């Protein structure tokens, strides 16, 4: 079941949805305990090649996949044959399978692996160790593990934490610090940071600087700032936008910041499959406004083939402010 992300998760004020937070708190304690126990009891396996983990501390919406794509690009630009490795959330194949853009659909391998495979070899595997070994046997010299911070199966050369840098209007990437489902955290902040080697704050394109309080919350960990920017302008004329990601309101905000003539916007649950009824509704809205349907690259990959010609994909990319410094970090990891 795909559920819409509660916006109150990302409010620091505990008075927001206070009753829901209180009722869900016991489940949060169980979730945090199970996660901690699973991590502490694991014996990570070294697949024989460096593993760069790109993860987050929340259940979604931090922008880890764009960062993983940029990490892969930088590695491959430096001459390292880096492959992506993902669980393949939302897909039915268990793997290990190398993603084939011509053969696989989001229903088979998940939407995020399809995005990763646009630039680099990408694998999906429910068993991350088996996936890592398959990629290494196929020639991978390094692995970028997408969404792997809470998965202890593989020995990681470095663990990067991606954090959403949006802090306007009372929004905070960790909410009030509560663990799912009474908050957005996969585990307590302190526990997650204890296993991290560096933090990447992913900033929206229209926010100038990272919040100093947010930067300070990571203590002595190295912090890199990256920016999420459109790969190109949105289509001209009226637009009806839609997105099924963890924080769909961020897409709406980004379209407005990019100067789009946004006539309407429809949020969907993260990874939600688009039904014919949903798409007909969106098409009707676009017809009313004389508008173009626009969605994210990730959402576009989940559309039925017959609808892809009717919807414009609006891709974004992550760029590091200190790209040279981050590339130096990656070089040290892959050469050691």
Task: Summarize the model shown.
With 336 residues, the protein is an alpha/beta fold. The strands form two sheets. Strands 3-4-2-5-1-6-7-8-13 form a nine-stranded mixed sheet, sandwiched between helices. The chain has a four-stranded parallel sheet with strand order 10-9-11-12, with helices on both faces. It has twelve helices and 13 strands.
Question: What would you say this structure looks like, in words?
Answer:
- This protein is α/β, with parallel strands linked by helices and 336 residues long.
- The protein has 12 helices and 13 strands.
- The strands form 2 sheets. The chain has a 9-stranded mixed sheet with strand order 3-4-2-5-1-6-7-8-13, with helices on both faces.
- Helix 8 links the parallel strand 9 and strand 10.
- The longest helix has 24 residues.
- It starts with 17 loop residues before the first helix and ends with a helix.
Structural topology:
Layout: H1 18-41, E1 51-55, H2 64-77, E2 82-86, E3 97-98, H3 106-109, H4 111-116, E4 122-124, H5 128-137, E5 142-146, E6 158-164, H6 189-194, E7 198-204, H7 212-216, E8 223-230, E9 238-243, H8 248-257, E10 261-267, H9 276-289, E11 292-295, H10 297-300, H11 305-308, E12 311-313, E13 316-320, H12 323-335
Parallel strand pairs: 1-5, 1-6, 2-4, 2-5, 6-7, 7-8, 9-10, 9-11, 11-12
Antiparallel strand pairs: 3-4, 8-13
């Amino acid at each position: 079941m795909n559920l819409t992300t509660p916006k109150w998760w990302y409010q620091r004020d505990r008075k927001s949805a206070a009753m829901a937070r209180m009722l869900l708190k016991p489940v949060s304690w169980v979730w945090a305990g199970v996660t901690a126990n699973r991590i502490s009891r694991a014996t990570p396996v070294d697949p024989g090649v460096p593993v760069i983990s790109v993860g987050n501390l929340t259940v979604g919406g931090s922008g880890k996949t764009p960062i993983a794509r940029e990490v892969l690009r930088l590695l491959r630009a430096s001459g390292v044959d880096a492959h992506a490795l993902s669980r393949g959330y939302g897909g039915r194949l268990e793997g290990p399978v190398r993603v084939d853009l011509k053969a696989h659909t989001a229903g088979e391998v998940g939407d995020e692996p399809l995005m990763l495979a646009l630039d680099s070899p990408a694998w999906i595997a429910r068993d991350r160790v088996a996936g890592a070994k398959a990629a290494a046997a196929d020639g991978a010299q390094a692995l970028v593990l997408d969404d792997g911070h809470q998965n202890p199966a593989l020995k990681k050369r470095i663990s990067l934490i991606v954090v959403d840098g949006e802090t306007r209007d009372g929004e905070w990437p960790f909410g009030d610090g509560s663990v799912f489902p009474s908050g957005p955290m996969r585990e307590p902040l302190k526990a997650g940071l204890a296993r991290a080697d560096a933090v990447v704050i992913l900033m929206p394109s229209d926010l100038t600087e990272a919040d100093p309080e947010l930067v300070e919350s990571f203590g002595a960990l190295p912090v890199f700032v990256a920016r999420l920017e459109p790969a190109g302008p949105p289509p001209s004329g009226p637009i009806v936008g839609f997105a099924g990601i963890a924080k769909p309101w961020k897409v709406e905000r980004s379209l407005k910041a990019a100067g789009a003539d946004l006539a309407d916007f429809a949020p969907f649950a993260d990874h939600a499959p688009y039904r014919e009824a949903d798409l007909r509704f969106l098409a009707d809205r676009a017809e009313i406004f004389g508008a173009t349907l626009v969605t994210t690259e990730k959402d576009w990959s989940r559309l039925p083939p017959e609808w892809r010609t009717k919807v414009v994909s609006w891709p974004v990319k992550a760029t590091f402010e200190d790209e040279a410094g981050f590339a130096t970090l990656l070089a040290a990891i892959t050469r050691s």
